[in-house]
Input
Amino acid sequence: MSTPHQGSLSRAQDEGRLAELGYTQELRREWSLLHNFGASFSIISVITGITTLFGYGLNTGGPGVMSIGWIVVSFFTLFVGASMAEILSAIPTSGGPYFWAYMLAPQHHAPFFAWITGWRALVLPVTPGHD
Output
């Protein structure tokens, strides 16, 4: 558990890193763990994903395949999350994935990849049946 002093030190370091990148701190960090969980849970649409794919998985693979598959996929999803967290900690901007796409893509294709990533992040969460 961090103390208030450690939290302010971390924020000062973040603001210093943003200043090195040419940005000023504008994002308020006021979300609690419950706020963050609620937003994440609603975005991933667990309820719609389970109801639309549960019957298909049981008919094509059965409960054993679904259980083992869920564990294996969850394990590899942790690697994706760890990779994204590492990238985010190196480039701490509020732009999100489209900024990362721009920074990580080859120079010539960076604007295109950032544009595709930004629109995908905007459109897919509001599109019915995107699971």
The helical segments are 4-21, 33-44, 46-60, 62-90, 97-104, 110-123.
